[in-house]
Amino acid sequence: ELATLINETTHFGVMRRAAASLAQLGEPAVQPMIELLKSPNPRIRWYCAHAAGSLKSEKLVQPLIRLLYDDDRNVRRVAAGSLGQMGSNAAIQPLISALQDSGRGIRKAAAEALGSLRAAAAVKPLIAVLQDHNANTAGAAAWALGEIGHDEALKPLISCLEAGGNAPYHEIGWALHKLGSDRGEEAFITGLSSGPWYQRCANATALGKIKSEKGIEPLAARLQDEDARIRRAAVLALMEIRSHRSLEPLRQALKDEDFEVRLYAADAIKKIEKP
Description:
Layout: H1 2-8, H2 12-23, H3 30-36, H4 42-52, H5 61-67, H6 73-86, H7 92-98, H8 106-116, H9 123-129, H10 135-148, H11 154-163, H12 169-178, H13 183-191, H14 197-209, H15 216-221, H16 228-241, H17 247-253, H18 259-273
Helix pairs in contact: 1-2, 2-4, 4-6, 5-6, 6-8, 7-8, 8-10, 9-10, 10-12, 11-12, 12-13, 12-14, 13-14, 14-16, 16-18, 17-18
């Protein structure tokens, strides 16, 4: 019934939800899903390729690999993502090839999938993707290299950090941290003042998670940032680090114009003074 609904509906929302519901049925859904992945309708292939990843069936690996060469870029992108969920080594070489795909978002999806598969064979191709002009794609490659954990990635990641510019500091930082390099801390600190607000917040949060002593002063400086979201993230990070060195900046933050900053600062002071 779900497969029939997917084939017959013209409502994209219904189609997407039906594909997700079909995948939830487990093994009985595998064969209908294989047939749906062959549909002439690209929307059906797109939504079913996306849903197929949660089935984690070896029978779906080859049908999804074939979709890496689909005419529709959305189908190729979600097929790459689903292959990353499958855990099959058979997908590694096709995904490495997909790193050359110029379709929007596909190189990023392929890089993330290779990271999820912890594919050592992908280290060199992923290092090449670190140079991508798109920060999201380069960030996915950095994340994947951190997941794979091969020492060969260390120098290229540091070079990417030192190149500056629009570097994906958050992903580089975590990759270096996982590889045991203290340069990861430097990446997070640099990222506090670079890029959109959500990336800067992510770097502040990372410094809190690793309880970075070196990050205290840079985080305290961000308490003067014009964006309240950055100030909130900085206060929360200082709360995680819990150093007496941050008490004075946090006391100043009690006068902040933003209610949440003041609230978090009061809580941080309390936790530092009376752990």
